[in-house]
Design a protein that fits this description.
Elements (H helix, E strand, L loop, with lengths): L31 E6 L4 H16 L4 H21 L4 E9 L2 E7 L21 H11 L3 E4 L5 E7 L6 E2 L2 E2 L2
Antiparallel strand pairs: 1-2, 2-3, 3-5, 4-5, 6-7
Helix pairs in contact: 1-2, 2-3
Length: 169
């Protein structure tokens, strides 16, 4: 019996299924592309969606998911606080052993960077934290030239063995 579903229409879900084409070749997990109303209450929702996708679809180890979850929170929070659009977009893709996360605030602006926050400051450490976590994930991060999209890329698995948070030879 021949399937009536074209082999080019394959999807995965957040339950961990892996897509396999009709000829048996593995294909990349389905990407995520969602938009949230620009409200602070949406940060937790973005974090849950991102963590579930990384853990269950991409099979990212839990320690790496934990770090990526904080990165998602910080980038979405910044987009909500500093963006001027009605919505904030979250895109996630996995290709060639790497994950790419993008947060789009739909507001062109000067490209921000990590800052030194004062000892008593309640804000201003988000991008410093993003830099530290993405470095820990052996990845890279930045913004598009127009400042609308913050992105990071990191390997699905650790690039080097780690013991108690320190790199080992």
């Amino acid at each position: 019996m021949v399937s009536s579903v074209p082999s080019s229409i394959l999807t995965t879900s957040l339950t961990g299924s892996r897509a396999i084409s009709a000829d048996g070749a593995r294909i990349a997990p389905s990407p995520v592309d969602v938009a949230f109303v620009r409200e602070a209450s949406r940060v937790a929702q973005a974090r849950r969606i991102g963590a579930a996708w990384l853990r269950n679809v991409c099979r990212v180890p839990q320690g790496r998911v934990d770090s990526a979850e904080v990165v998602i929170s910080e980038l979405v929070s910044n987009a909500i606080v500093h963006g001027r659009g009605r919505t904030v977009g979250l895109r996630m893709r996995r290709t060639a052993g790497q994950v790419r996360l993008e947060v789009d605030d739909r507001s062109p602006s000067a490209v921000p960077g990590p800052q030194q926050a004062g000892v008593g400051a309640e804000r201003g450490r988000g991008l410093w934290l993003v830099k530290a976590l993405v470095d820990e994930l052996d990845g890279s991060w930045g913004f598009t030239a127009d400042g609308t999209v913050a992105w990071c890329v990191f390997p699905v698995g650790p690039a080097s063995s780690r013991e108690n948070g320190r790199r080992t030879a």
